[in-house]
């Protein structure tokens, strides 16, 4: 009898030890414990640390409270401006209510993934291509708002951030965008070149104003050009025709190069001042963002009597009265 009692006590002690071991649970710091007692969920979840449950009556499910980074598979869609794109994203979310995350949805990770895919398709259809490429902050905020509305209240899951990773465009659209950028740069280059030619012509006009006051300066410039050409050790040297000889033949032919009496001649200082003013206007920085900022071409505006920067527009020859000489 004594031996049977000892064996019975040992068996009872063993069962008690098993019950105690099965009733003790440890919840990690990043987890929360949701307890089901006889199939009914308890309103309060178990905090991290050591906790006790009733064996064969309670069942505890642990829920991870850490932030989860989930990649959204690439979704194909058509934007608002009828461009086919392929967009993928990444979603950052965490569980804020463990009871709702366990009771209201079967697998909240898979459910959040499906909501992210459908929301991404919806946002792609509402945005245009330029917005997808340049204004991603607005797209991310809209995605987060749509997903929060579907997951926070019913499932107890907070979407913290949504980021679009990549936007893939069709090859035809990429080529069109490349051609557009190339044409824009070509337009800017041509406008800058034309602006440089315009400023260079103004400086040449100013130099011609100075040389016109003294014909000897033009001859000195000619000799300087000859010296520069001869310094290159060329085997052939081209001598331009002297300007003074041309003027001699012009006077001999009856051409009058002197101003008539009664016609006042512009002073050299005034002409230089006018040339410097034109150069200052031409050197002003001009915006080339639009075609309207391009300087007008003198002579092409029929309604303006005066061209760009003091250059007189050509007169209409059809309105001039022809000078018909009578019989001698």
User: Radius of gyration over alpha carbons?
Assistant: 45 Å
Strand residue percentage: 15-25%
Helix fraction, binned, reads: 40-55%
**Which structural category do the helix and sheet elements fall into?**
alpha+beta
Q: Count all strands and give the number.
A: 8
**Low-confidence segments, ≥5 residues, pLDDT <50?**
259-265, 299-328
Query: Oligomeric state of the chains?
Result: single chain
Total count of helical runs of at least 4 residues = 9
Mean pLDDT: 77
List the secondary-structure elements in sequence, H or E.
HEEEEEEEHHHHEHHHH
Biggest β-sheet strands, sense, barrel: 3 strands, antiparallel
Strand order of the largest sheet: 3-2-5
How far is the N terminus from the C terminus?
A: 169 Å
* Mass-distribution shape: rod-shaped
Descriptive account of the structure:
- This protein is of the alpha+beta class and 328 residues long.
- It is 48% helix and 18% strand.
- The chain contains nine helices and eight strands.
- The strands form three sheets. Strands 3-2-5 form a three-stranded antiparallel beta sheet.
- The longest helix is centred in the middle third of the chain and has 43 residues.
- It starts with a helix and ends in a 45-residue tail after the last helix.
- The C terminus is likely disordered.
């Amino acid at each position: 009898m004594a031996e049977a009692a000892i064996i019975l006590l040992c068996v009872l002690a063993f069962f008690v030890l098993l019950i105690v071991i099965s009733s003790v649970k440890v919840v990690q710091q990043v987890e929360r414990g949701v307890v089901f007692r006889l199939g009914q969920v308890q309103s309060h979840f178990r905090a991290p640390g050591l906790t006790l449950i009733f064996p064969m009556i309670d069942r505890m499910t642990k829920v991870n409270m850490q932030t989860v980074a989930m990649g959204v598979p690439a979704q194909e869609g058509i934007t608002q401006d009828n461009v086919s794109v392929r967009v993928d994203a990444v979603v950052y979310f965490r569980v804020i209510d463990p009871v709702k995350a366990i009771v209201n949805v079967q697998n909240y990770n898979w459910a959040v993934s499906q909501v992210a895919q459908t929301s991404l398709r919806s946002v792609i259809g509402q945005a245009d291509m330029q917005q997808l490429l340049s204004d991603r902050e607005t797209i991310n905020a809209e995605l987060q708002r749509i997903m929060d509305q579907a997951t926070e209240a019913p499932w107890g899951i907070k979407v913290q951030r949504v980021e679009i990773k990549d936007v893939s465009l069709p090859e035809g659209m990429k080529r069109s965008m490349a051609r557009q950028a190339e044409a824009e740069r070509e337009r800017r280059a041509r406008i800058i070149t034309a602006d440089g030619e315009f400023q260079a012509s103004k400086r040449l006009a100013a130099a011609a104003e100075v040389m016109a006051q003294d014909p000897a300066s033009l001859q000195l410039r000619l000799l300087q050009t000859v010296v520069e050409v001869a310094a290159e050790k060329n085997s052939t040297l081209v001598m331009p025709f002297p300007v003074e000889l041309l003027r001699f033949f012009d006077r001999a032919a009856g051409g009058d190069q002197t101003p008539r009496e009664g016609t006042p001649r512009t002073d050299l200082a005034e002409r230089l001042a006018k040339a410097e003013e034109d150069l200052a206007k031409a050197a002003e920085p001009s915006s080339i963002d639009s075609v309207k900022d391009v300087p007008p071409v003198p002579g092409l505006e029929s309604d303006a009597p005066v061209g760009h920067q003091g250059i007189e527009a050509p007169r209409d020859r059809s309105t001039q009265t022809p000078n018909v000489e009578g019989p001698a």
